[in-house]
Amino acid sequence: MPTHPKLNPLTHVLRLQYAFKTRVPALGLSLALPLAAQAQAQEWTLNIPAQPLASALQAFGMQTNVQVLYSPQDVENVSSASLSGRHGVEDAIRILLQGSGLRYQVEGNTVTVVASSGSALELGATSIQSTGLGATTEGTGSYTTGSASTATKMNLSLRETPQSVTVMTRQRMDDQKLNRLTDVLQQTPGINVTFSGMDRFDIYSRGSAITNYQLDGITTQTDSQTRTIPQTSMDMVLYDRIEVLRGASGLMTGSGDPGGLINMVRKRPTAEFQSYVQAGFGSWDLYRTEADVSGPLTEDGRVRGRLVGAKQTQNSFMDAYGNQRDILYGVVETDLTDSTVLRTGIDYSKTQVDGAAGVPLVYSNGQRAYFPRSTSVGARWAKDEIETYNYIVNLEQKLPNDWSLNLAANYMDIDRSTLIGNYLFKDVGVLPSLNQSTGNARADRGKSEANQTQKGLNITLQGPYTLFGQTHEFITGYNYNTYKNTHTAYSDGISNLFNFYTWDNYLPRGTSFTPSFVMKTEYEQSGLFAANRFKLTDDLSLILGARTSDYKYDYSLQYLTTTTRNASRRRESGQVTPYAGMVYDLTPDQSVYVSYTDIFQPQSAQDRTGAVLDPVTGKNYEAGWKGEFFNGGLNASVAVYQVERNNLAELDVGYTVPGTTDSAYKAIKGAKTKGYDLELSGELTPGWNVMTSYTHAVTKDADGERSMTSLPVDMVKFWSTYRLPGDLSPVTVGGGMNWNGPTFVVFNNNKISEDDYFVFNAMARYQITKHLSTTLNINNIFDKTYLSSIKGAQGLYGDPRNFMVNARYDF
Which of 114, 135, 168 is the last residue of a domain? Predict the structure, then answer.
């Protein structure tokens, strides 16, 4: 076993333990290595090509002068990644082990590499200073992560974060073929995905819609009034992971909803070459191809690049409905100096939806309508096309004493065009237009155009400092973001009566369009924030922070055929958002926490008179327990929470905004959401990954009446994969199920409901060679028929049984 020439007593014990495969009792040993702290803080210029892992670890030990411990059987037939440039111990060993399935721990100047379960080592009182998992999830094969920064921007482990955070890793997305953000969120603990027309979705958590989405930590806005929301249709081929914060995010975003925040973290260039191509096909003429190539662009590895692309086309189980997506992403990362990294890139996506999804649930007489799940409401020529460009600039500067300065900017440019031809769910009056006896209905025909730009800037300074014998962490920063959307609608002037029973999705198409209205929406927000993680004792941490925000909002709706104009203008200045969280370590693996945050969210929803609702305000309380096991390979959590809100927007069923067909909303005073979450994610034993959760959330108004009834109170989500042992190790099998509790809405004094339901899914993967694999995914195995979303007089059925076969080649 290759090690540093001088071995301490613990090293000899570990060597014997591996040799005889026995378990060592808790040793209670304390290492006294005079150069330990210096070794961990130091960086070396390293050059270790890809090679058998055993020889790579020997080279690593020689070049860094640290001890490296491992079992020869664990590294047999395993190759290392290549390593070059300046790195510290933990960063270097993480890179070397990428894709190996092995974990590491660092103690003093000793690095121990262990099998994925980590169960071979029981070090008792020895302090484990690294879990072996970093923030990046690609190549780890894990269903969890070592750190996440969405809640506080501090790189804390999930156990150290005093809020509920779920990370959907690259492996999790690959195993279940979660190719779109809404696919990912449907499998994310505590998240509801609801249909809102055509190919648009609203995302809910803890009784509130999520309207803040981040790209690499930079906030982007969404607005339900404009419906130009590219975030929910984003393709996952670009992303390393999706971090989902459940609860208020005011410290990082200023204005925001109490439900949560979704942070999409892009893939970054790699120091070593890696590449794959894959192609697949599936139900309803699904065809998808992907390619991803990454690696150094110069011999010294100081310039690295990555190029990612994907294309997908698919029809649907719904009549005359389908979609297609084209995605391209390029990024270059340059080491300007040994401590300065510049990253620039651009990603492009084009999505086109043909037809319109959804099914009528109510007739014009108020009676419940029952149509087959294959029914859709869009004309064959209808389409909705969104083209999005994102421009990325990021500068990372390492400073002395482990401090860092980060500057990141994102510019988003979106163009949307639609040809509207679909059944009109909401007539001029309260009830929908579909006549039960005759089938006569009204159609909405026209076209629209929208342009949206968003700018975001983040500047953060953070680092540790020592005070009263403890090491604390401080972070401060500035955010700025703007949002501008102009939406122009046109009417075709054609008689819009047709027979829904016999139309077969054919609808006359107009050629002459008359301008109808122009909607303009503008946001501007800036804020300063600061937070400090005080280490009060070895076991107790306190995070205190605050943000002050300035906010501008302008909205206008000008009808071009009349003089009618709705307008709203709001200004918020010096809005202070506090944050407080405390974490107490019960053991090295378990902790309890409490947290508190304020929330405020200006909103664009309008009531039945056309007035814009006042901002949502409230408070968020949370307490819980978290566990981190197997050197961070498995995370568990239990959380209880209460969210108190005023002016929460709820659908005012049966009413529209005057002069439009848009749904009207009403403000709920004194709304409270109470609930609890249970979650488990990671590796239970070598090769056995699991992600499961149970969530319970109830929202009530000031009178104690339940609201948000279209969202289930209870949800269970479960998914697991297992790599078979021995000669069957090339085979991985997996499966899971989602259970949703009952939902309902009351429309015209009629209750439209969906009972609770189970949906089961499965997968199997076969590793044909070291480079080639094939995967089969089957969804809704038992072909359950269920309404996945109810929204007033319309709904959306969940997908029937479907499959996808995929082949992947890794170079």
Answer: 114
Q: How far apart are CA 412 and CA 1, in angstroms?
A: 53
Residue 603 near residue 551, CB atoms below 8 Å: no
- Two tokens, residue 459: 């500047």
Task: Give the phi and the psi of residue 333 in degrees, each rounded to 5.
Answer: -125, 130
Nearest to 261 by CA among 274, 280, 248: 248
What's the CA gap between 251 and 600, in Å, rounded?
11
Q: How far apart are the first and last CA of the chain?
A: 30
Q: What is the pLDDT of residues 453-503, one digit of tens each?
A: 999 999 999 999 999 989 999 999 999 999 999 999 998 866 678 999 999
Q: Based on the structure, what is the number of domains in the chain?
A: 2
Q: List pLDDT tens digits, range 565-581.
A: 777 777 878 888 888 99
Asked if 750 contacts 367 with a C-beta cutoff of 8 angstroms, the reply is: yes
Asked if residue 85 and residue 223 are part of one domain, the reply reads: no
Q: Is 4 helix (H, G, I), strand (E, B) or coil?
A: coil
Range of the domain at 461: 183-267+278-810
- 247: closest CA among 284, 285, 219, 207? 207
Backbone angles phi, psi at 433, to 5 degrees: -95, -5
CATH number assigned to the domain comprising residue 24:
3.55.50.30
pTM, two decimal places: 0.81
Return the higher-pLDDT residue of 337 and 792: 337
Q: Contact, 403 vs 466, CB < 8 A? A: no
